[in-house]
Task: structure prediction
Amino acid sequence: MNKQLVLQTDFGWCDGAVSAMYGVAVSVDLDLSIYDITHEITPFHIWEGSYRLYQTITYWPSGTVFVSVVDPGVGSNRLSVVIKTKTGHFIVTPDNGTLTHIQQYIGIEEVREIDETVNRLPNSNASYTFHGRDVYAYTGARLASGVISYEEVGSPLKTDQLVQLHNSPAKREGSAITGVVDILDARFGNVWTNISQTLFEELNIEHGDRVEVTITNHRSKIYQSSMVYEKSFAAIKLGEPLVYVNSLDNVAIGINQGSFAKAYKVESGAHWEVQITKDAETQTKKQ
Result:
């Protein structure tokens, strides 16, 4: 372990919850370095927490310990686990689907159930609603600092026992590519899909070409229109929509200096489907 602890929650910053997690961690080891992914995950949005982990962890050194707490089932019989990824990172989290993107795109080498008879903040057994502090921050800090080894977290489980959210991979069918809205670029309202640049390029679309974009939610059409595919927002006029490749090399949809998600009330998750095809103008030009 490298004494790096990185936290993610849906707790927000309006009270002392995150600070309490910090306090527990440094009480384990004052030399820990503690950082944050975000504490602004939409409350109870497990899918969003899953994606933010996937978006972030590979940029951190191997051996970094992450604590992710988006836990609407706190106090229930859902398991508390620590996983080791195939990239050598560790994630302390409830087993409720938060590891879906990690398992699908990065890979999980090993998983252990947290033994709360050992790995729980002393004198916290009467509380059932703040495992982020009492179990996850405490266990994460002990692991990151080397107070316990990974084997001392608890008993091993099979990786295929982990709870997984439904997450269909992007696919091409003829001249159409279909994927899902993986996440919203929250600050700017852009819509990030799971359609890779490589798959998108199979449509033989070049910068400057126009595409037809259809977005559905539970198969109900939310948006359908033609827009340009460009390298960046600088290539289009203010207020115009575009398709572009985001920082993770996936296809995204946005509006130049506007919020596409807010304008069309788009959210993220497996039931938010995106389909992209060449529009009639592009098809005619390339025939």
Remarks:
- Residues 131-145 form the longest helix (15 residues).
- The two ends are 57 Å apart (CA to CA).
